[in-house]
Amino acid sequence: MAKSLAKSSYQCNICNKSLSSRSNLADHIRIHTREKPFRCNFCGKKFARKGEIPVHVRIHTGEKPYQCNICGQSFTRKDILTTHGRVHTGEKPYHCDICGKRFTRTGDLTVHVRVHTGEKPYKCNLCSKSFAKSTNLTDHKRIHTGEKPYQCDFCSKSFNQNNQLIKHRRIHTGEKPYHCNICDKSFARNDELTTHKHIHTGEKP
To answer: 148, exposed or middle or buried, with CB in 10 Å at 0-12, 13-18, 19+?
Structure first.
C-alpha cells in the first residue's frame, strides 16, 4: 500500500512538496518559476493555471453563474457568493486574536490587525507616506496627481475621494444622517454633531 501511494505522489524538486498528480505538480512548479503560459483572448492577461481562465473571462462576458437564493444577487465566483451569504446569516467566522472583533472576510481581518500592529505596508512613492489599506493609498495619490474622479451630478464639482462627494451631495439633498440623541436635532456631518453635543454637556471643544 505504501509503495503504491509513493508511486502516485509527485514531488517538487525545488521545495520537496508532494502533489497528487503530474498536472498538479506542473501547476505548483509555476509558483517557483512564475511562468504564466495561459493567456486571456480578450485582454491578454496571463495566468499560471488553465483553470483560472474561465473564471477570469466572466469579467469580460458578464456571466455570473452563482446566485444568492435569498436576495437573487449573482456573482462570478462561488467563493464570492459564500462571502456574500454572510450578509444574510450574520456569520463572522474570522476573529481577531488581540481584541476578539469578528469579520465576515479574512481580508477584512488582515486589514483590522494592522490597527494593533501599526503595520502600513502600502507606501506612496512620491512622498513616502504609508497606509494600512491599498484603497487609502490610491486616494492619497490623487493629492499628488490632482485627479478628481468623483463628480457631483447636481453641480459637477469634483472630488478626489468618494466620501468627500457623499458629504458634498448632502448640500443639495438636505440629508442629515447624524442625529443628536438628546434633542433630536440632525446634522449633515458627524463633526457638526460632535460640536453640537457640547451645548448639552457644557464641555468646551
So the answer is: middle
